Amino acid sequence: MNIIKPEQLGQNLGTICWIAGDEPLLVNESADQFASHWRTQGAERFSFQIEKNQPVWDDVLQEAGGMSLFASLKLLDIRFAQLPSEEDKKQLARILPLADNTLAISIRTPAMNKKQTSAKWLQALPGVLMQIWPMDKAKFPNWLASRASAAGFQLDQSALSLLAERTEGNLLAAMQELEKLKLLCEPGQLTGEQLMELVANSSRYKPQDLLDAALQGNLDAAVKIQRDLITEGVAEPLLSWAIANDLRTLLMISSKGNNALPPYMRPHFARAKHFERAAARHSTSKVEQLLKLAGKLDRLAKGMDDGDFERATLTLLAKLAA
Fold first, then answer.
1. Within the chain, which residue ranges are assigned CATH 1.10.8.60?
2. What CATH code is assigned to 201-322?
3. Is 310 exposed, middle or buried (0-12, 13-18, 19+ CB in 10 A)?
4. Does the structural domain 136-199 have CATH classification 1.10.8.60?
5. Per-residue pLDDT tens for 60-89?
């Protein structure tokens, strides 16, 4: 079995393709690309899920050797929940040589290490093996922007940051969020604030309401809204992003005044009065300290630090509202 890179799949659409990886979206898309090639030639697709202690190999072998009632071509889509066992390896060695111009076979498994892909039993099998590795975190924002563009959305930097933080590098979750956006609004340009409004959905309160209360110095209202948001299930990463985003805006105003705001936020910045009140209460150094606390809050929201998210949020809100 020859090993190929993901970008080489289009030139290797033979009768057998083994796709190994732990990133479900990319694995499924590659398998769909292989299947699409065979469907355009009239192949009928048969899927089999291989689970531990649930053998279905007799069914697979029967389908591999039998004629289809509806098509002259067949595609066997074999999916493994875990890496093949010794018995699975024996069955693959029986079935894969049956592939020809009337039978194509695709296989999906979890990722394999170098020792596993170099094993003699695997090397002796016909076809190609494509290993899909998890995406580098540094490449995720560009990938996300590209997928958003393909879906018809142009995200500004704040919207892109919000969506990236919400999905935390999970490609499948990112695509699901883009699908939700297509249901919630028309394609076009989206800012961070517009996106935050959309993802807040039907909550009684929105993260912006929480920040407005704290910026105005109304801690009682902020505490009530914060608890209602958490009760309603608003995602913690969304709350932490909203807090950090507004603190960055407050830092700009605190250090340089309203003229420090980006052009798209002037001159009709509806929340300006809330930030002006907060800037009058807090020095630039105090806001910088609050931003450090927001960093801690972000790590808690993503499970990257120890502590209680709700308590840490209340502590930050109390300092901001003081």
1. 136-199
2. 1.20.272.10
3. middle
4. yes
5. 888 887 765 565 789 999 999 889 999 999
pLDDT digits (tens, 9 = 90+) for 130-188: 999 888 888 899 999 999 999 999 999 988 988 887 777 778 778 878 887 887 788 89
Which of 52, 51, 58 has the alpha carbon at shortest distance from 79? 51
Domain 2-132 CATH (choose: 3.40.50.300, 3.40.50.10540, 3.30.160.390, 1.20.120.450): 3.40.50.300
**Would you call the peptide bond into 267 cis, given omega within 30 degrees of 0 as the criterion?**
yes
Contact yes or no for 232/204 (Cβ under 8 A): yes
Which residues in the chain show pLDDT less than 70? 53-55, 67-71, 199-205, 232, 257-270
Q: How far apart (Å, rounded) are the C-alpha atoms in residues 212 and 45? A: 55
Question: Are the C-beta atoms of residues 274 and 212 closer than 8 Å to each other?
Answer: yes
Task: Report yes or no on whether pTM surpasses 0.70.
Answer: no
Q: Are 21 and 27 in contact (CB under 8 A)?
A: yes
